[in-house]
Amino acid sequence: MTGVTVEWVTKSEINNLGFNLYRSVDGREEEQLNGTLIPGLLSSVSGQKYTYRDRAVRAGIPVCYTLEDIDLSGKRTSHGPVCVYAPAPQPVSSEQSAVSSEASSVSGLPSSVGGERHQ
Questions:
Q1: Fold of 4-91+98-106
Q2: pTM score, two decimals?
Q3: How far is CA 46 from CA 22, 36, 57, 76, in A?
Q4: Residues 17-71: pLDDT tens digits?
Q5: C-alpha distances in angstroms, 104 versus 6, 25, 53, 95?
């Protein structure tokens, strides 16, 4: 299965309501991927790892992702973009019972929300 896995980690979240994830394909306008807000931790000093699997990308096309966090007052902060090329599916041999492929993984987005930014 082809696709891109977008991962981000927060070290802490201060007044963080949640996240929206946007994708831009081949330099076009961004579209929001999540139908509902990805819930944040509200206020936590321990943070969390988040993962979003984007299966709707074509192989070999540049894909850029922007993460937006929204705090409890409604303030929106964008992080990114981070860009990758979606991988091509791997060929299936007659011995394989299922198609497998390597997935691109996007990381490097900010590690704290609503406070000091950690790299």
A1: Immunoglobulin-like (2.60.40)
A2: 0.74
A3: 25, 24, 33, 21
A4: 999 999 999 888 999 999 999 999 998 898 899 999 998 888 888 899 999 999 9
A5: 8, 15, 10, 25
